[in-house]
Specification:
The complex is a heterotrimer of chains A (about 325), B (about 325) and C (about 300).
Chain A (H helix, E strand, L loop, with lengths): L1 E14 L2 E14 L3 E5 L6 H9 L7 E12 L4 E4 L5 H7 L4 E4 L3 H4 L6 H13 L3 H14 L5 H4 L9 H13 L5 E5 L7 H18 L2 E6 L2 H7 L2 E6 L2 E7 H6 L4 H8 L40 H5 L5 E4 L2 E3 L4
Parallel strand pairs in A: 3-8, 3-9, 6-7, 7-8
Antiparallel strand pairs in A: 1-2, 1-4, 4-5, 9-10, 10-12, 11-12
Chain B lengths: L1 H28 L3 H5 L6 H11 L5 H13 L13 H36 L4 H15 L2 H15 L10 E4 L2 E4 L4 H27 L2 H8 L4 H30 L2 H6 L5 H10 L3 H29 L1 H4 L3
Helix pairs in contact in B: 1-4, 1-13, 5-6, 5-8, 5-10, 6-8, 7-8, 8-10, 9-10, 10-13, 12-13
Chain C lengths: L1 E2 L7 E2 L7 H14 L1 H18 L1 H4 L37 H37 L1 H16 L2 H12 L3 H11 L1 H17 L2 H7 L4 H37 L11 H10 L6 H28 L9
Antiparallel strand pairs in C: 1-2
Helix pairs in contact in C: 2-4, 2-12, 4-5, 4-7, 4-8, 4-10, 4-12, 5-8, 6-7, 8-10, 10-11, 10-12, 11-12
Classes of the chains: A alpha/beta (about 325), B mainly alpha (about 325), C mainly alpha (about 300).
């Protein structure tokens, strides 16, 4: 049962240097209660896609040109298109239905507001709690995400927390109003490795407890392998491969996915041999893509790849790829 | 926080010592103050006697030391012209200047903050054009000229305001301003208004793009809450610094306005002293205004530290 | 490489502008796009033209008194005539001619004042930022002290002591304005040093001289030109202010400040005497500020971002 269905999302940035083709037709769906990993290198449009859904991009320069993002409620009976909501409806979705965990909690939290109030704000907005109730609930949430001494920590400012603790606060904000979906936008990138593992654990735990659907954005295939149910690989603003996680690791089809997996240090020692890298640089997003954007770096590219854009086709059950091979 | 305040205190003290050095040697540059004081036909003996009496015949370093210790005890020397302690003359004029500067600052804040906020939140809108215009006007119209124009139009032609002078009225023993302060305060505050508009507008534009504002949007807050609680609030912390600096500027920069409006304040006293070549008084005013500005800066820094939790709970 | 839409991780590559001609073309394109910058440039050019060609442009000798036609109102009023488009002052001197000649005083003070302040300030700032350590602490201590002083009071004080002459006015502004340029230069030097490519240059064996001339100075030009424009406009203001108090160039010299000072005495009866020189100051200040804003946008690549 899908909870979110994104169809052919196109977002562009109109800058002084030219038009940046950030998203060139992103389609995917998200099942209720699953973890969908989105991987891709920086500039592939992972974050832009997620921010487009909630209209969080600065506009201008950004503009969502096309697409649908259907959000299903009540067991799939009702659906709304997130991209055509009114302002008030959108506010109800943001934070209320979809929580967002940002990458760098230090800059994503207001430095001059106590963390307690930053959580409470959301509660008062969506659940209509009074100041007192919001405080109680915020303290509970802080405890829930594993912050010791929550009662006291409520009054602290972000700079008084360690990186991991700040990310926990961020998570508390995202789950505060019982959302259906949580978007975790590289939630562990800015953290130490040991802390990373704790945060991954925490989100996994909360996902199970609260039956959340999670979209997990990362460029770290290792993290995805551990927790995701399915994986979407993005390149140059569109998905190149979508598959169940095991399928993707055992049987990658798109050359880019293969390259990514080749560039991954062996997981649990399964993969020995030398660490491969993908030759070349990501494509110039200023040009409108007319054919496969991986041709310049693809070892298997042939003429058709340089003339046509492949369709996203199902090559095995629940395994889609955008490649002529 | 204590360390922060302590370091600012030390800094301020250092600045004041420097100021004393500067104003002392500037007075030395004026030549012999005594020859300015005595009448043209005084005999050399009389001049010498006065020099002796006022201590101007001692070595420079001794004079500076005296000057320094006197200043520390609140003795800013004597006005050569008025034959009165300079500090007394200054303090007599201080209320008028404070009234003028405070009113000017109030105008600037009342106009500047909302205009900057409106402009910054809707770039290229009507309000933004107004805000940018106000910023530009503040920087391009000299206050002394604006004052003249205001007098011609609003006082002479329309008769809405007095052309010069300061009137006050009393209520429960408090001295309160009358409309006589409106024109001088508006003219004086124009530059500050422009600065505040510019600052608030650019702060809003910048903070709008901060990650934590995006977080606030992602929480589903209303625009009003986001602007009030996140954007304006965060912009108001650096605004404290601007206000402090501008108040210092208004206190010390009112020489033109006070001259034009015959406003009985410090600026006017300074202009008179310069006209009379009463450099001892000029020196005292220069030191006093420096003291005020430095003290304001110190206060501003402390207020800033209190307002910004990163400093308050720092160290 | 330039990053847009902060935090989205989205980057675009910009082809490097190679060659001076390409760069100049790019700057012209930007100037044309930003009409206010263009307006500022035109205004400044008009003022410069007026200063250079003053003898040809002014209808009268600015010093020539003519008591019979004294206090003639400007041409647009009923009593005025086209002989004196902007009227005459209390001594019958033509206001338009005096305003045109006044540009000379203003621009001279502004230009040479900034030249002095900028060249000395830049050298001190370079040394302070480059050498660092105790030198830097002392320099910045002094700079912060001077910047903390009530500027106007001290300028008036100094001007009153030193007396009235163009040279003295230039020197006063030139020297009192040094700290601003020190601070800007030092800030830029520190920024450039931190950016890492100085270390890269040093690691391949570049000497101090080469680093300063090839790597630091070119980066300083943009910010310094921007600040210089603003400071020039500020100096023109302050010069007029000093003149207004009777502390700038001698009263016989046609300068905007002196004209305002005269105009003030006749303000209620002959308001035009003070009005037009003030407008000239506003006009010049407007041009320089618009140009400065534009310089800041164009020459500071950190600020050049999104098309609005």
């Amino acid at each position: 049962m899908p909870i979110l269905e994104v169809k052919n999302l196109v977002t562009r940035f109109y800058t002084i240097e030219g038009v940046v083709h950030a998203l060139n037709g992103v389609s995917f769906d998200l099942e209720e209660g699953e973890i969908l990993g989105i991987v891709g290198e920086s500039g592939s449009g992972k974050s832009v896609a997620m921010m487009s859904l909630l209209n969080l991009l600065p506009m201008p320069p950004a503009r969502i040109e096309r697409g649908k993002a259907l959000f299903y409620e009540n067991g799939g009976q009702d659906s709304v298109d997130l991209l055509t909501l009114t302002k008030a409806e959108r506010r109800r979705v943001r934070g209320g239905k979809i929580g967002y965990i940002f990458q760098d909690a230090l800059s994503a939290l207001n430095p001059v507001m106590t963390v307690g109030r930053q959580i409470g704000e959301s509660l008062m907005e969506h659940l209509g709690l009074s100041g007192e109730d919001a405080k109680h609930r915020a303290v509970e949430l802080l405890e829930h995400v594993g912050i010791p001494g929550a009662e006291k920590r409520y009054y602290n400012y972000p700079h008084q927390f360690s990186g991991g603790m700040r990310q926990r606060v961020m998570i508390a904000i995202a789950i505060a109003c019982d959302p259906k979906i949580v978007i975790a936008d590289e939630p562990t990138t800015a953290l130490d490795v040991t802390v990373q593992a704790q945060i991954v654990e925490l989100i996994k735990r909360l996902q199970e407890e609260l039956r959340l659907a999670v979209i997990w954005i990362t460029h770290d295939l290792g993290v995805v392998a551990g927790i995701a149910d399915r994986v979407l690989v993005m390149y140059a603003g569109y998905p190149v491969e979508i598959s169940l996680v095991d399928d993707l690791y055992n049987n990658p089809v798109h050359p880019y996915t293969k390259g990514l997996l080749g560039a991954l240090p062996g997981i649990g020692g399964k993969r020995a041999g030398r660490l491969e890298s993908i030759e070349g640089a990501p494509p110039d997003l200023l040009a409108k893509p007319k054919h496969c954007q991986f041709v310049w770096r693809c070892p298997y590219a042939f003429d058709r790849c340089r003339n046509e854009m492949p369709e996203l086709v199902e090559i095995a059950p629940k395994h889609y790829t955008k490649c002529f091979l | 926080m204590q360390r922060y305040i302590l370091s600012r205190l030390v800094q301020s003290a250092g600045i004041l010592i420097g100021v004393l050095l500067i104003v002392f040697f500037m007075l030395q540059m004026t030549g012999d103050p005594v020859s300015l004081m005595v009448s043209r036909n005084a005999s050399p003996e009389q001049v010498e006697a006065l020099r002796e009496e006022l201590g101007y015949n001692r070595p420079v370093m001794v004079q500076f030391f005296d000057f320094f210790t006197d200043a520390l005890t609140g003795d800013f020397g004597m006005s050569l012209r008025h034959r009165q302690p300079s500090l007394k003359l200054i303090l007599d004029r201080l209320p008028a200047t404070v009234e003028l500067a405070a009113t000017a600052l109030m105008f600037a804040l009342v106009i500047g903050v909302p205009l900057g906020l409106l402009g910054g939140s809707n770039p290229n809108s009507f309000w933004d054009i107004m805000a940018r215009g106000a910023g530009l006007i503040g920087q391009t119209i000299p206050n002394f000229w604006l004052a003249l124009i205001l007098i011609v139009i609003l006082s002479v032609h329309l008769g809405w305001f007095p052309t010069f002078g300061r009137n006050t009225w009393s209520l429960f023993g408090l001295t309160l301003p009358t409309r006589s302060v409106v024109l001088p305060a508006f003219a004086l505050g124009l530059f500050t208004t422009g600065q505040i508009v510019r600052f608030v507008r650019s702060a809003v534009l910048e903070i709008k793009n901060e990650d934590y504002v995006r977080t606030a949007y992602s929480k589903g807050l209303s625009d009003r809450n986001i602007y009030m609680r996140h954007i304006l609030r965060n912009a108001s912390i650096p605004l404290i610094s601007i206000i402090g600096v501008q108040f210092g500027y208004l206190m010390s920069g009112s020489i033109y306005i006070e001259t034009i409006f015959s406003w009985p304040g410090l600026g006017n006293l300074l202009a008179e002293a310069i006209g009379n070549r009463d450099f001892a008084l000029v020196q005292a005013i220069a030191f006093f205004t420096s003291l005020v500005v430095v003290a304001l800066n110190l206060l501003t820094d402390v207020a800033y530290g209190l307002a910004d939790p990163r400093i308050r709970y720092g160290d | 490489m330039m990053e847009i839409a902060k935090g989205t991780g989205l980057r675009i590559d910009r082809a490097p502008n190679t060659g001076i001609r390409a760069k100049a073309a790019y700057v012209c394109k930007l100037l044309w796009r930003d009409k206010t910058g263009l307006a500022g440039l035109i205004i400044v050019l008009i003022v410069i033209t007026a200063a250079v060609f003053a003898p040809f442009l002014s209808p009268y000798d600015p010093l020539q008194q003519d008591l019979r036609s004294a206090k003639t109102p400007p041409a647009w009023t009923e009593e005025g005539d086209m002989d004196h488009p902007l009227g005459t002052d209390n001594l019958g001197r033509d206001i338009l001619s005096r305003i045109i000649y006044g540009t000379r005083v203003s621009l001279t003070v502004g230009f040479f004042g900034v030249l002095i302040a900028c060249s000395i300030g830049m050298v001190i700032g370079l040394i302070s930022g480059y050498v660092g350590g105790l030198t830097d602490n002392i320099v910045m201590g002094l700079v912060n002290m001077i910047l903390a002083l009530p500027y106007l009071v001290f300028v008036v004080f100094i001007a009153a002591i030193l007396g009235r002459s163009l040279l003295i006015v230039i020197l006063i502004f030139g020297f009192t304005d040094i700290p601003i340029f020190v601070r800007i230069t030092r800030g830029e030097v520190l920024r450039i040093r931190e950016s890492g490519y100085i270390e890269a240059a040093r690691s391949i064996g570049a000497g101090n001289g080469r680093i300063i001339f090839r790597h630091i100075l070119p980066n300083l030009i943009g910010p310094l030109i921007t600040i210089a424009t603003f400071e020039m406009s500020a100096m023109i203001f302050y010069e007029a202010g000093l003149g207004f108090l009777g502390l700038s160039v001698p009263p016989s010299v046609p300068s905007w400040g002196n004209m305002l000072s005269t105009g003030r005495q006749y303000l209620t009866i002959y308001p035009w005497i003070a009005t037009y020189p003030g407008l000239a100051i506003v006009f010049t200040g407007l041009g320089m500020n618009l140009l400065g804003d534009w310089f800041r946008d164009v020459l500071d690549p950190r600020l050049r971002r999104i098309k609005r």
